[in-house]
Amino acid sequence: MPAASSALVVVPLLGYLSLLYAVRPATGTTVGPYRLAAVRAALATGAYAVLAVELLGALDALTLPAIALAWLIFLVAAVALAVLRRRREGPGRWAPVRDRFRSAWRTASRGEKLLAGTVAGLLLVDLVVALLAEPNNFDSQTYHLPKIEHWVAQGSLEFWPTAIHRQVTIPPGAEYLLLHLRLFTGGDGLYNLVQWAAGVGCLLLAARIAAQLGGGRRAQLLTAFLVGTTPMVVLQATSTQTDLVTAAWVACLATLVLDGLTRRVTAGTALALGTATGLIAVTKTSGLLGAGPLLVLWALAQLRLSRTGDHPGRGRAVWSTGLASVVILLVAAVVTGPFLLRVTAEFGNPLGPPRLRESIPMQRHDPGSILVNALRIGQTALDTPLSALTGTSAGVVGDAPAEAIEGGARLIGVDPQDRATTFGKTTFPVQAWYPDEDRVAFPSAGALALIGCVFALVRPRRISPDRPGALRAYAVTVAVTLLLHSAMIKWQPWGNRLLLYALVMAVPLAGLWLDALLRARTRDRTTTDRPGRRSVAVVLAVALLAGSALAGVLAVSYGFPRRLVGHGSVFTTSDWDTRFLRRPQWADEFRWAADRVRATDARRIGLVQQNDNWEYPWWLLLRDEDGGAERDIVALQSVLPKRPPASPSSVDAIVCTGIRADCTRLVPPGWRVEFRDYVGVALPPDPG
Known about the structure:
Structural class: mainly alpha
Number of helices: 29
Oligomer: single chain
């Protein structure tokens, strides 16, 4: 695509900034008004991005001109709203924001400046990595990014024959956002910025949630610090995974729900809640395990508010709450409904094929199985390097908590490796402490969040004297979310990233508890010459904060598969080799096969692969330099019941990955087959 089209990337950004100005709260009593404006603008922009893709996809018009026109319309509308707002209020409305930041920095303590500086530094370094590193996440190579290439190639969202069902069955909300960047730039150079922006959003929203629950500046900074130094957040912020995007949408919903604890619903609020719910559902369904309890909390709060007024007003409030609930569900259905309709039409079930419905969700729900699953999830989430020290030389994990969980499970008659509660052929336990984006644990943030949740449930007034009721209600919501996650999602080695949305929900409780602990210690020191009773707890809490900072720095420096220093550094590794850091032995094999295909001038390429194979490299290698689809890539296998595969006789060449027998079985008679270790190619006989 022409390089000039890349400049169009700024159009959505300008539209978002215009909305940010237009939708900011008018009232001065709003907690974190500019963060709330960011939430409103993000929801509007995100929903527009999703619905634009759905509409243009239905019209077979997923092209650069169409998507550019859609965003120009968005920009014009957003600027018009901003101009109207400015005319109503006059100039100079942003000056107080600048003055507040300056005043906050001048009055901040040394510790608060250290917290803010650490988070800002990590964000900036993460931004550098996100811009320099090519997408190299394993799942992205298999299904996240190939689905975008299919959409671009066919100009629509219609399903296609494929051997990888996740390309069509996993919710595509995050990939919809990437699709806009793909059409504007013709490549994937800016893909990592979506998760980076989502990470920034998680920091800001978690801090606002802490403020809504009664936390001051220090509590908010502690919350942002814990989120920003969590290794999983640091690593995913430079990735094309989808978990941070999910967590950001859940955090948007959470902060809107907390606003609803003290304010009666309006039409705008209902639309925002519905939009957030829809964006969660269309991005990752596991996020609904947090959305459900949050919406229940909101509904109960609205009903409680209806009892505080006079009798006639009470009836109207109950009716408005019910109507708003319907609006929320309808708006969510508009956002996620088109995708669910396509899945239902293909598989007869909105949840997809049986293979998907049975692989990740729990298939046993007796109390013992749920308890064991929760303990396994907790052990993996809180794993530390100590588990590596107790392992054997053969690399077998052998830490006491895991062994205790296995022993306790057998004691109550539950198999800790039961396939009904354990994903695929994986085996509990695994080492999760190493900074790998797919499985890294978060012991500091996780432990502090659990402690904060317990104290918020038992002693909410000590943590938040001004809002104990709201704090306890939110803590109950977090606890229910964790229970639902344990009851619905099987344990798996990669489960920590699935838990990221719940961690972002829970960390504000940790920030509030830490702030209360520091307040109490200060109070003790001013009222007695003896050491405060909480000194030991404070020392442990500070140690956990220091450990969290160290973990964040190590994650961005040495994390895998994108790092600043060491083997695989973004500064010293070539673009192509960076893409294959997960499987470096495959880099030359893909190029070898692509060169063999190019030498024949084949135009229609058949693809043979298995469910977890890498497809994306073929799209990079078999398209022309300006990003257009030079060759057709078609699947010779299909797991979709209504999408038969292409016939081997209809293609000019075949490329294969994985099992050689699957490839040779589909090769037409007389074709020559060449295979390396993982990659193979089949070509027709020479014409001569």
